[in-house]
Amino acid sequence: MSVRLDWRLLQPNDPRNLPANADDDALYDFAELDKLIADAESAGERVGFRITSFNSCCDDNYPNSTDISVPDWLRSVDGATQDYEHNGVTYVIPDWNNMSYLTYFADLLAALGRRYNKDERVAVFEMSGYGDFSENHVAFMRDELAIPAPEPEQSEAELGYFSQYRDQYITKESIEYLVDANLRAFPDTQIVAALGNPQITKQLLRDSPALANITKPVGNRSDSLGTYRPIPTWAEDKDSRYIQTGDPIVDLVQNRFRIAPTITEWPPQFLKGGTEREYYETGLRDVVNDHVSMTASTGFPAQRTTTPMPDEFYDLWVRANKYAGYRYAVTKASVPTRASPNSDIPMSFDWTNFGSAPTYESWMPQYDILDSSGKVLRTITSRMALRDLYADQDYDDLTANPASRTETDLVMIDGGLETGEYSVRVRVQWNEKKTDATHSVSFPPMQLAQYTRDADGGYLLGEFTVE
């Protein structure tokens, strides 16, 4: 489950009115986030979340005709926010480079990290603190409010980095401060971020000194599957200066899927025109070619209608969700039918990933050797690295399945077994633990893309006799 929370929900009280040594429970209200995390645990799920300080939409109405995501008290902090009137609504938008704004938000991040970084129920934290919906751009300021952002020719002088699309307002100095605050707060949790700002991307993927202390490479949190590519425009468009100059960050972005997840979601409307078929075809193609790990199962246009989705579009939508992430199976098992007592018994198993991406968490395959009564006599830990098992993709035929990849795992029962009847099964155990966890969780073995799953989460691979 992934949630997005306004800053104002977490910090309604003005910290200036509290003692200087006030603890986190006095400064912040974690009740709603705590409940969301607890509810997810009860449902056998984990949580990802981000914090927003500006959302350009999408409430049905705004109290006092004011769109505000920051705490009310922040409006009284000199220079931290500005009010903009548009179509009868007051938009309260942070000054992204104001040090008071950045400091208060960094304090919030630090408190969130102290409370949730070591919590195994929290799987993902999305970089927060800049942009519309914390998505690291503010096109709304450019397009709707007509607030001028630096032109490309002036962007390096004004922002400290090249910005081609006039949708960036944050400076390099502010980026470094905010990125470091995010990384320091959640070093043990998978961080993902919208990669639309090239300087934020450089800091998150390569340049921040805080990267030295994180346990997982930062992943990609893209938006609007079927409309916008998971790879940001600046990192792949032929007219982008980053492409034309061969900036090394481009390859880093395009290959990030090899070590970190891409998470995305469907938009509820056709943001760039086109047909419904093109929307779902584009989504399916991008899921596979960009190795998307996870898509939201909600948000697509048909969800908002009472008319059943046409079968042809439903098929495209289903397969986009199906192909996202990993689908592992043991597709071939070579187990000798007979073996001699107390002699080494060699076996081999072909593992195939039919999905578009690997797992980025720690899942450990184990082979159980069972006697005729079903008792586990021996467990052999596999050397198969599932995170490395994925296929490069060039997916264009939308009637086909994605390319799959198969690797062989060689296994030996050292010293053999006594005379008897035996079977071998595999279980893939979840092992994504946080050191010194404040709240630990466990999950059943991975569901593989094959049949014969037993009550223990194992899959029968073969039977043999020792005689």
UniProtKB/TrEMBL annotation:
Record organism: Antrihabitans spumae
UniProt-listed InterPro entries: GH
Protein name (record): DUF4832 domain-containing protein
Superkingdom, taxonomy of origin: Bacteria
